[in-house]
């Protein structure tokens, strides 16, 4: 015969089980933004490894490029970048209006980071969950503070001093994606934010996470070049674990 304590324990277990089944995990969205020339390098990582993200996460590509191989146009057309940054911000607001509880993460590479930063900077504080920037081809002194403020968790930046070709001599010709008169891209040196007050200093200290390439990263697929962060298992071990557990999903749709 069950005691009163056992009956109470079974009752609590039943209630908890009911809630666990009736309250599904929060919907998550990962937006991929490719670099100049639309090589779809980011998307291919996930297509080749369909078990990278959790089941409740959907992937969407944000198209902004002038077209395949149009690297110079993508890198130097600042009005085009600004326009698509506004489109990105509008798309995010539309998604959130339909699903206010959705958690949005953006992963961008190279010149695509300029679109990501332009768009995220237009959002309200704590609007998206996190922002991942791989080898950003914007300048190291890009005004990143508004984008940091719009992110709830952190801005993660992967850069490499060994990225000496794409973010080296090529930038002498194209300049950075924000058209600064500098070859010092954040993808080589990391961001150096210009803070104006204590509040901005705290934002940078708590939300900006930067990861410099190390020689030991070569052993797990990252050679330090412009596409090094895509190398696997580097992506699996260093990039995605910052975000999710039990990775598992596939690319399912496209925006806009």
Please give a structural write-up.
There is one protein chain. The protein has 256 residues and is an alpha/beta fold. It has one domain (26-255): Rossmann fold. Helix content is 37%, strand content 18%. It is built from 10 helices and 7 strands. It has helices at 4-22, 41-48, 71-76, 78-98, 112-120, 145-149, 169-174, 186-189, 198-207, 234-239; strands at residues 28-33, 57-62, 103-109, 128-134, 151-159, 208-212, 251-255. The protein has a 7-stranded parallel sheet, with helices on both faces. Strand 3 (103-109), helix 5 (112-120) and strand 4 form a beta-alpha-beta unit. Helix 4 (78-98) packs across helix 5 (112-120). The protein is globular. The model is unreliable at 1-23 and 245-253 (pLDDT under 50).
Helix and strand arrangement:
Elements: H1 4-22, E1 28-33, H2 41-48, E2 57-62, H3 71-76, H4 78-98, E3 103-109, H5 112-120, E4 128-134, H6 145-149, E5 151-159, H7 169-174, H8 186-189, H9 198-207, E6 208-212, H10 234-239, E7 251-255
Parallel strand pairs: 1-2, 1-3, 2-7, 3-4, 4-5, 5-6
């Amino acid at each position: 015969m069950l005691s009163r304590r056992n009956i109470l324990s079974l009752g609590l277990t039943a209630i908890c089980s009911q809630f666990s089944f009736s309250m599904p995990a929060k919907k998550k969205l990962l937006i991929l933004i490719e670099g100049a020339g639309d090589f779809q390098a980011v998307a291919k990582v996930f297509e080749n490894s369909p078990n990278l993200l959790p089941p409740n996460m959907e992937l969407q590509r944000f198209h902004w490029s002038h077209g395949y191989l149009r690297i110079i146009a993508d890198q130097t057309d600042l009005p085009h970048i600004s326009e698509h940054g506004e489109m990105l911000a509008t798309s995010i607001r539309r998604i959130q209006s339909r699903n206010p509880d959705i958690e949005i993460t953006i992963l961008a590479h190279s010149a695509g980071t300029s679109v990501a930063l332009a768009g995220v900077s237009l959002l309200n504080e704590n609007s998206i969950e996190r922002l991942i920037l791989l080898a950003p081809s914007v300048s190291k002194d890009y005004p990143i503070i508004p984008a940091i403020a719009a992110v709830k968790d952190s801005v993660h930046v992967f850069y490499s001093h060994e990225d000496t070709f794409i973010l080296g001599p090529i930038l002498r010709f194209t300049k950075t994606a924000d058209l600064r008169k500098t070859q010092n891209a954040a993808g080589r040196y990391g961001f150096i934010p210009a803070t104006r007050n204590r509040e901005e200093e705290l934002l940078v200290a708590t939300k900006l996470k930067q990861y410099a390439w190390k020689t030991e990263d070569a052993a797990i697929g990252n050679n330090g070049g412009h596409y090094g962060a895509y190398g696997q298992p580097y992506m699996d071990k260093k990039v995605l674990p910052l975000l999710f557990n039990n990775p598992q999903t596939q690319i399912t749709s496209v925006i806009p």
